[in-house]
What does this fold into?
Amino acid sequence: MSVRPNLFILIPVLNEAGNIPRLSNSLSALNQEFSKRFELRVILVDDGSTDQTSELAKKAAAESGFALDVLRHETNLGPGKSFSTGFSHLAPILHENDLVMTIEGDNTSRLELVKQMLHRLEEGLDVIFASPYMYGGQIVNTSTFRVFLSAIANLFVKESLGLHGLFTVSSFFRLYKSKTLKALQQYYGNGVVERAGFECMVEMAMKMVFAQTSISEVPMVLDTKARVGKSRMNIMRTIRGYLTLWFYKKKWQKQSEARHE
It folds into this structure.
């Protein structure tokens, strides 16, 4: 009997107790939808929560029947450190046909897009991003100022860091083939991510471009009403984080080139 590949879902969280019930229901529905194709395994990285995030997640997983591992930081280290912890955890257990999905923990990642993202991977691509900036996507129930600032920051980052051809480079919602993630780990280390802040996703996009990874996108409607509570992103701190990536560009490019020689 053939063994089903794993679909790992990596989720960084910080004080998301209010979002856990809806998130768990979405994960349970995803588990039921793809149970014949994949073994769903959720990896929750609790980045120093002071509420009941981890406890509620464990209880919900037990009731819903999906596998859950909780990795915990005793203090808040930032989303980049959470992804690094999760990727390091995955490094020794990923198999050839496994997939890894990263999502937000606040229910703004639209899991109904998973089927479409899987179809794109089957076309031979390495990674699929969910993008609110491409045709068919949008950001709703957010102030005009924040949408404008987000769009300008996204455009500036792409132009200044040479990430041409992508609509969005900062979204957490991505689907990776295991071989792609393993290649990145060979180039840049098991944790892949070095930066601690929200700029970590731009860092990964840069590294994937340098590693000649094939990337595509699907449109997503980002609805902030799906979230309980406010975004954890500090705009000015994130912009400063984006700007610092320019100083790492040559280093990461050389690391990738050394592997291709």
Summary: The chain has a mean pLDDT of 90. The longest helix spans residues 144-161. Strands lie at 6-13, 39-47, 67-73, 99-102, 127-131, 138-140, 174-177, 215-219, 221-223. The chain has one domain: 6-260.
